[in-house]
């Protein structure tokens, strides 16, 4: 029987050999999946703390759900607090980093600084210090920027808006210039106070920043 094997021309076995080689190359690529693992810390104000709506409807909770549905092993810690300023966030950040030891940080602060008329230079200094502190511990940072309404005066509004890109450029971190941009002029997207997003707007906010969050988690886009 063994001798019969060698009676067949070699050309009959070439397709089989090619198929085996292809399987050797393809199977590992299909079976290995890169999983994102770590802790994502969100440090924000009432916008990220789901003010005025059920916390389960907030964009941060929706982010948790999306990451879980995508099979990502990412723990999302929401350290956002209503009324928080950049100074308050800076004061809390060291302990938050120590406690949660995140791999990624999203900073969504500054709105309350602006509403209270704080100098933009103070906001800039606080944001820079937060980013530097996180980077010193190898934490990747994404900044979600805010803007002030025109009734605060052109000079203040422009100076405030410039803070975020200045910090992002200086510290080389990704930036969403205006987190509320896709909803701020959309009818029914804001609560009665005209400041906080409604529950219906939360999925829109997540969709808006999702590409930047994906890049943050994967380390792409540097």
Core attributes:
222 residues; 12% strand; alpha/beta; 47% helix; 5 strands; globular; five-stranded parallel sheet
The major pleated sheet works out as: 5 strands, parallel
Order of helices and strands: HHEHEHEHHEHEH
What is the terminal separation in angstroms? 62 Å
Number of helices: 8
List unreliable stretches of 5+ residues: 27-33
Quantity of strands, as a count? 5
**Structural class estimated from helices and strands:** alpha/beta
Give the radius of gyration. 25 Å
Q: Strand order of the main beta sheet, please?
A: 2-1-3-4-5
Helix content: 40-55%
Let me know the average pLDDT. Answer: 89
The amount of beta strand, in percent, is: 5-15%
Q: Categorize the overall geometry.
A: globular
């Amino acid at each position: 029987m063994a001798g019969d094997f060698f009676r067949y021309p070699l050309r009959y076995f070439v397709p089989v050999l090619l198929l085996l080689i292809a399987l050797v190359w393809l199977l590992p690529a299909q079976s290995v999946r890169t999983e994102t693992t770590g802790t994502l810390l969100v440090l924000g104000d009432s916008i990220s703390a789901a003010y005025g709506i059920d916390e389960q409807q907030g964009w941060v909770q929706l982010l948790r759900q999306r990451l879980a549905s995508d099979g990502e092993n990412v723990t999302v810690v929401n350290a956002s607090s209503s009324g928080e300023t950049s100074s308050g966030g800076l004061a809390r950040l060291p302990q938050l980093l120590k406690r949660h030891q995140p791999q990624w940080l999203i900073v969504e602060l500054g709105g309350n600084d602006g509403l209270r008329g704080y100098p933009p230079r103070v906001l800039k200094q606080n944001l820079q210090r937060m980013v530097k502190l996180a980077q010193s511990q190898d934490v990747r940072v994404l900044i979600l920027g805010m803007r002030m309404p025109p009734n605060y005066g052109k000079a203040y509004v422009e100076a405030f808006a410039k803070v975020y890109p200045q910090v992002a450029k200086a510290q080389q971190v990704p930036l969403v210039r205006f987190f509320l941009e896709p909803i701020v002029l959309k009818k029914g997207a804001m609560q009665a106070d005209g400041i906080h997003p409604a529950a219906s707007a939360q999925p829109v906010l997540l969709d808006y920043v999702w590409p930047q969050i994906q890049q943050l988690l994967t380390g792409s886009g540097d």
